[in-house]
Design a protein that fits this description.
single chain, about 375 residues, DNA polymerase, domain 1, Rossmann fold, 2 domains, binds guanosine-5'-triphosphate, binds magnesium ion
Length: about 375
């Protein structure tokens, strides 16, 4: 495991032998699935680990030993890693011009299309519909919140939760760490999670509490969380660029960035630095979107809100990432407090109705309110 990523269990309840055994079992399982997978199978089915994930960069035409070494040095090992990068990143890694880098990126994508891992550029609406049917979902732990998200957090997409301090963004992230590890019939994807912690608010003891309240084995759950603490925005970007290895080696199905914008906000102060901040944030958010698609993982990013005195109508708060985050996240959910409860609203979704649901924070992490509270909230909304 790379030094930047750390199993959460390292800090609590360590049982090294058990961890190693589980790791080994997991690797064996992955290898078995790889061996059994057919690269020519219909790409519209659930993708999971397959040959595309392990195909190394030198398998691409035009990539010789020198370029391979340069790419590997930059942490780009497989064709999937290559396809998940922007031409700018490739150009920096190999010292080529942008056009050559764009060609390499395109070749990587074409290879993944050839392997039926990615879809063609031009496809029928029926094919897109079929692919959307193959998208997998992770339950948030609350039925109401799942309904708002049409069944849960989607794979191959970035879901952003934004709201003021204490609204429950970090609690949602902690609950998802437990939920994603559940079997599919219980709302999970039987996968591990990478937690990029930028605010130092990841708490393994809270994970233990949520796991116990949900009748899961807390040790197993902690083993399945790979934590990366990001100390500044550049470090946060570096961690994301190394994600491919974690996904390959550990069967990661969910990536959490809590919070995506905090470092950018702290580092780029004042109006003079705004455009640089937005550019860097834009790059990071696009990298998240590409990672979600290429590695077939669900991505959850959180974002704070700040008072916006120029707003006269609606809620006088807006997400700090501004337009950048709004335009790159696939789904945006606004969270606010109402007394002891929380209200979630789907914002600007291409296909969800803009509506609000109620949820609560308790020992299970995210949960549904008691039925009477729920129905009186729904009645109020309808009237
Ligand atoms: P910022 O990161 O500051 O922007 O806030 P956030 O949106 O991430 O808030 P967070 O998810 O940390 O929510 C904090 C709130 O969660 C607290 O005010 C509590 O209401 C609730 N909470 C946290 N831990 C527990 C717990 O163990 N039990 C219960 N019942 N509630 C908890
Ligand atoms: Mg938080």
């Amino acid at each position: 495991m790379s030094g930047r990523f750390q199993a959460s269990a390292d800090s609590k309840r360590v049982n090294t032998n058990k961890n190693l055994n589980r790791e080994r079992q997991f690797k064996l399982m992955s290898k078995k699935e790889v061996a059994g997978s057919d690269p020519n199978s219909d790409g519209s089915s659930s993708r999971g680990p397959n040959l595309a994930m392990y195909l190394e960069v030198e398998e691409l035409e035009g990539i010789g030993p020198v370029m391979k070494t340069k790419l590997n040095t930059a942490g780009i090992v497989t064709v999937m890693d290559l396809a998940s990068k922007s031409p700018n990143e490739i150009a920096d890694a190999v010292g080529s011009d942008l056009q050559r880098a764009a060609e390499i990126c395109e070749k990587a994508r074409e290879k993944l299309v050839e392997l039926k891992y990615l879809g063609e550029n031009f496809v029928s609406a029926t094919e897109i519909y079929k692919r959307r049917m193959a998208i997998e979902r992770i339950s948030t732990g609350s039925k109401n919140l799942d309904d708002l998200l049409s069944g849960g957090i989607e794979s191959q997409a970035v879901t952003e939760f934004y709201g003021e301090f204490g609204s429950g963004k970090t609690q949602i992230c902690h609950t998802l760490c437990v939920m994603v590890q559940q079997p599919k019939e219980l709302g999970g994807l039987h996968g591990k999670v990478v937690y990029i912690d930028t605010e130092n608010t990841f708490r393994p003891e809270r994970i233990v509490g949520i796991a116990e309240a949900r009748e899961c084995d807390p040790d197993a759950i902690l083993d399945g969380i790979i934590v990366a603490k990001a100390y500044n925005s550049a470090h946060q970007e570096l961690i994301l660029s190394e994600l491919g290895k974690q996904v390959r080696d550990h069967g990661v199905r969910l990536v959490i960035v809590d919070s995506a914008v905090a470092h950018y906000r702290a580092e780029f102060l004042g109006r003079g630095t705004l455009s640089e901040r937005q550019q860097r944030l834009n790059k990071f958010m696009h990298a998240l979107v590409r990672a979600a698609e290429i590695y077939n993982v669900a991505v959850v990013a959180t974002n704070q809100v700040q008072a916006s005195p120029d707003t006269f109508f609606g809620d006088p708060t807006k997400a700090t990432g501004g337009h950048v985050v709004a335009h790159t996240s696939t789904y945006r959910v606004y969270i606010r407090k109402t007394g002891k409860n929380r209200v979630a609203r789907m914002v600007d979704s291409p296909y969800h109705a803009e509506r609000e649901v109620l949820f609560v924070l308790n020992e299970k992490g995210v949960d549904d309110p008691p039925e009477e509270v729920n129905s009186s909230f729904s009645k109020r909304k309808q009237s």
